[in-house]
């Protein structure tokens, strides 16, 4: 039961005032600009955009600054802002095959047509704090020249899964143009189809999805994933505009796409072949995209005719119902707010029960 | 007037270019044409969200990925040319400038606007993309599989 | 798209749409009361009141049915540019616009489900005249009784009988707007 409390306005004002001062920190240290956050904390910006479910780097940078770097608080700000926007429409599905790739790797084929492009990755760094930034902020080594030939980018980068698809070695991805459900417009409905699941996963909490994905690797609903392909880059977004009667490009955004290739033993009606898990996330968000692909694959057990091993990652209602960090933190954090009346009634109840027990014992 | 099938393709091209352009650079190039033409709003600049969609497995059925901010507007110049814009982000001035260029591209000053605004924006976007592609290409690797010992 | 289709929207959309929305809520809360609304203009035969209702209530997520008489290239273009609402048949519509006879058959529209009674159509009925006389209205939002010049009573009586399912109605004539939610009881005066 919720009971309103009154008062505390002065204390709240003072707390906000202090919060603003703490946000600013030591005034002897230069203040961060939004552009600095956007450019130099770009992976935090990416995470806030992905889980805030809104691509707008300037706004995400502002949210991070306002939230003092608390990314879930920043995501909260983005989600709240998002609800004030009139929906101008939905884009045509983006063509990730036409992505301008900063990074494109395959863990399954070393000679992937189109080549393996590492991009700006941490993968081969030494993970020794301070070695790269020199403690002086962004020391950029001058001796590695940009020697690549840009015309290389013209080399097509076909999907790795298409290579397997040509021989029928991987499950087909049936095309379609059905209007997908939108969880931001209609309440979640279980059982959730794959389109709804993917939407919930792509805006879900990175830590939660990472944990879920890791659990499948450790044997809870094991599905033996290989990263068939991981690509990061920009795609153009096109939308049908009624005044032109045509689709026009309304901008471009950075996406991370991960396709996993998973073992599948086959069933009575189907021969053995590989299956797919899919991750597509706003921004450069590699860990999240791989996690999403693993969890997507785990949630597909039913449609692929697999057994439900009872693993948490196979339970769509459990995964989708707990993946959203704003829902979760809202419910979690509300319990620290005044519950005085609720607690008084509990206290009274416990006292009465103890008194009754004592009386019974005495009799 | 830009019309017909070839016209619309060209128009889609510059509308996309204007949508992706850096707002300050677009304003700067537009300024080189002199005073902005007088216009009336058909739809005043409005910030909104566009739901971006992806496809399952990259090629399958669509799903909702998340939104992006887009600002749109429509205006009519005194000469009667109508310009539309849907631009990335929350820049109302960006949308106005884009719609203005779109309208001007349909009037008698089209070739002048192409040379002063569209051309440079195209070249700069190309250069940005080329530079990024070159950087990506410089991180292209060949992995060698080493033969593993059998002991 | 013709330039005529691009004109006639709100001059100050956030403010005007908020005013019309307020008037719309009032009309639904006080069935039978006639309000005056305006600020926009759609191609004929759409009334001024219907035009502002469309601008205020419709967007690309609210499929709209244009009944014969209102369906035509000018109205379609205007609706597409100003609201983005997809144009559909009666069965899929969340809003429908037309004269009463053209809106029939009423059985084709969505009336919601027990879990989601809101997933139903709102009819915007264009009227030749709109006055506070005719059918007798009683129910929520009406202290004693109200009267409204409805095109008939039987369809509204049946609609009320299946509450909480059913459709809701707006009546428009020139700049005048009235509403009749499904919760209102309707009988011959």
Automatic annotation (TrEMBL), chain A:
Name of one Pfam family that matches: PhnI
User: What taxonomic classification does the UniProt entry list for its organism?
Assistant: Bacteria, Pseudomonadati, Pseudomonadota, Alphaproteobacteria, Rhodobacterales
Q: Which InterPro entries match?
A: PhnI (IPR008773)
- What this protein is called in its record is PhnI protein
A GO BP entry:
organic phosphonate metabolic process
From TrEMBL, chain B:
The superkingdom listed in its UniProt entry is Bacteria
Kindly state a single biological-process term from the GO annotations of this entry.
organic phosphonate transport
Pfam families in the record: PhnG (PF06754)
**Name listed for the protein in its UniProt record:** PhnG protein
Question: Mind telling me which InterPro entries this protein's record contains?
Answer: Phosphonate_metab_PhnG
Automatic annotation (TrEMBL), chain C:
Supply the source organism for this entry. Salipiger mucosus DSM 16094
InterPro entries (alphabetical): PhnH-like_sp (IPR038058), Phosphonate_metab_PhnH (IPR008772)
* GO biological process, alphabetically ordered: organic phosphonate metabolic process
**Protein name listed in UniProt:** PhnH protein
């Amino acid at each position: 039961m919720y009971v309103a409390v009154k008062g505390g306005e002065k204390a709240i004002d003072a707390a906000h005032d202090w919060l603003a001062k703490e946000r600013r920190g030591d005034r002897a240290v230069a203040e961060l600009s939004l552009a600095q956050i956007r450019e130099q904390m770009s992976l935090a910006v990416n995470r806030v955009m992905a889980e805030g479910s809104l691509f707008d780097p300037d706004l995400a940078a502002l949210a991070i600054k306002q939230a003092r770097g608390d990314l879930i608080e920043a995501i909260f700000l983005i989600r709240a802002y998002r609800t004030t926007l009139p929906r101008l429409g939905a884009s045509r599905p983006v063509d990730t095959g036409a992505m301008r790739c900063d990074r494109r790797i395959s863990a399954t084929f070393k000679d992937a047509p189109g080549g393996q492009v590492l991009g700006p990755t941490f993968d081969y760094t030494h993970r020794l704090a301070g070695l790269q930034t020199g403690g002086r902020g962004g020391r950029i080594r001058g001796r590695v020249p940009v020697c690549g030939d840009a015309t290389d980018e013209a080399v097509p980068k076909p999907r790795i899964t298409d290579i397997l698809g040509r021989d029928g070695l991987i499950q087909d991805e049936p095309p379609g143009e059905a209007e997908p459900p939108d969880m931001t417009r209609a309440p979640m409905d279980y059982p959730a189809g794959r389109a709804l699941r993917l939407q919930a996963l792509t805006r879900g909490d990175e830590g939660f999805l990472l944990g879920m994905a890791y659990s499948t690797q450790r044997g809870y609903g094991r599905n033996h994933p290989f990263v068939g392909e991981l690509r990061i880059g920009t795609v153009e977004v096109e939308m049908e505009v009624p005044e032109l009667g045509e689709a026009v490009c309304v901008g471009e955004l950075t996406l991370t796409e991960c396709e996993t290739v998973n073992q599948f033993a086959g069933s009575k009606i189907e021969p053995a072949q590989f299956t797919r898990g899919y991750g597509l996330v706003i921004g450069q968000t590699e860990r999240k995209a791989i996690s999403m692909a693993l969890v997507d694959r785990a949630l597909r057990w039913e449609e692929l005719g697999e057994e439900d091993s009872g693993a948490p990652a196979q339970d769509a209602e459990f995964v989708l119902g707990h993946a959203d960090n704003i829902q979760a933190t809202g419910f979690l954090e509300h319990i620290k707010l005044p519950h005085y009346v609720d607690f008084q009634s509990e206290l009274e109840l416990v006292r009465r029960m103890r008194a009754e027990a004592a009386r019974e014992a005495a009799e | 007037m830009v019309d017909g099938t070839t016209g619309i393709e060209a128009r889609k091209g510059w509308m996309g270019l204007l949508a992706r352009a850096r707002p300050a650079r677009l304003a700067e190039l537009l300024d080189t044409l002199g005073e902005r033409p007088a216009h009336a709003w058909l739809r005043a600049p409005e910030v909104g969200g566009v739901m971006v969609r992806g496809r399952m497995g990259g090629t399958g059925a669509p799903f909702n990925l998340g939104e992006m901010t887009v600002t749109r507007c429509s205006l009519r110049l005194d000469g009667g040319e109508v310009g539309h814009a849907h631009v990335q982000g929350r820049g109302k001035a960006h949308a106005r400038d884009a719609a203005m260029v779109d309208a001007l591209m349909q009037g008698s000053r089209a070739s002048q606007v192409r040379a002063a605004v569209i051309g440079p924006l195209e070249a700069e976007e190309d250069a940005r993309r080329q530079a990024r592609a070159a950087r990506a290409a410089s991180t292209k690797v060949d992995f060698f599989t080493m033969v593993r010992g059998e002991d | 798209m013709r330039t005529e289709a691009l004109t006639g929207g709100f001059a100050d959309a956030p403010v005007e749409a908020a005013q019309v929305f307020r008037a719309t809520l009032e009309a639904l809360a006080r069935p039978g009361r006639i309000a005056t609304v305006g600020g926009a203009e759609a191609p004929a035969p759409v009334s001024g009141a219907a035009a502002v209702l469309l601008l205020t209530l419709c967007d690309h997520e609210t499929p709209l049915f244009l009944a014969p008489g209102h369906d035509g290239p000018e109205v379609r273009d205007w609706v597409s540019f100003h609201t983005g609402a997809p144009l559909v048949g009666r069965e899929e519509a969340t809003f429908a616009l037309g004269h009463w006879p053209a809106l029939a058959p009423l059985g084709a529209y969505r009336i919601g489900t027990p879990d989601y009674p809101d997933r139903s159509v709102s009819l915007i009925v264009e009227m030749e005249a709109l006055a506070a006389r005719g059918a007798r209205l009683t129910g929520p939002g009406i202290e004693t009784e109200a009267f409204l010049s409805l095109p008939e009573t039987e369809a509204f009586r049946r609609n009320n009988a299946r509450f909480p399912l059913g459709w809701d109605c707006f009546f428009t004539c020139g700049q005048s707007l009235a509403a009749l939610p499904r919760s209102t009881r309707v009988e011959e005066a």
